[in-house]
Write a structure and sequence with these properties.
- The protein is an alpha/beta fold.
- The protein has two domains: 2-121, ATPase, nucleotide binding domain (Nucleotidyltransferase, domain 5); 136-207, no CATH class.
- The protein contains eight helices and five strands; from the N terminus they run E-E-E-H-E-H-E-H-H-H-H-H-H.
- It has a five-stranded mixed β-sheet with strand order 3-2-1-4-5.
- Helix 2 links the parallel strand 4 (54-59) and strand 5.
- Helix 3 crosses helix 4 (102-115) and helix 6 packs across helix 8 (193-207).
């Protein structure tokens, strides 16, 4: 069995590979957090004996490891995520030294894989992640739009308080068109029938 420990960081990841008997296969292997770095890791994993079981473990470190996890899943590899607090406590229990380095963290994760039940990360969780992200983004846009509408309404009422009573929707298409074309109260007051027909025409074209 291969035990693959990967320590996640912002710009690079560290990998340590050993067998369940303690035989070190790959020590202190670092690769960039990029497509080129992921390809290096893939080449290493594919070079191992395919007949052996492989367990891959990494820390749950937020978005820094997201692309790597997607890459592993796309290439047919399962993996297990560990809480950073758990890996930290396990590493402390393995040694009395307080040394902390990424290669040592990767080695500790590989060892931890052997001492726990291997529960792989469910692929459908990524779909849920995308849906939640899109929903939150939409909610933030709706909230921003509401705030901007309030700000625009307040400014309009300060600068041109007479404008509001003439429109059921003070920021509707007709009202916004008039404000955009005529800019100021003085110019709006000088509108004539030709301008009125131009407004009607523009509104009809916007609905066609």
């Amino acid at each position: 069995m291969y035990l693959v420990g990967i320590d996640i960081s912002k710009y690079k990841h560290d990998c340590f590979i050993a067998t369940e008997t303690g035989c070190v296969i790959q020590k202190n292997f670092s690769f960039h957090n990029s497509k080129a770095g992921f390809d290096q890791l893939l080449k290493l994993l594919q070079s191992l004996d395919a007949s052996q079981i492989m367990r891959i473990g990494l820390e749950a470190t937020g978005h820094y490891g997201f692309n790597l996890k997607m890459f592993l899943e796309k290439n047919g590899f399962s993996f297990m995520e560990f809480n950073p607090l758990l890996t930290h406590k396990f590493s402390q229990a393995q040694s009395l030294k307080k040394t902390k380095t990424d290669p040592l963290d990767a080695k500790s994760i590989a060892r931890l894989l052997l001492s726990v039940e291997y529960k792989t990360y469910p692929p459908q969780s990524y779909h849920m992640f995308f849906l939640k992200s899109l929903s939150r983004l939409r909610s933030s846009f709706v909230l921003q739009r509401s705030k901007h509408l309030v700000q625009l309404t307040n400014i309009l009422e300060y600068l041109f308080p007479e404008f509001k009573p003439f429109f059921h929707h003070k920021l509707g298409k007709t009202a916004l068109y008039i404000l955009y074309k005529f800019v100021s109260p003085s110019k709006i007051s000088k509108m004539n029938s030709a301008h009125f027909h131009a407004v009607i025409s523009a509104m009809l074209n916007s609905f066609s």
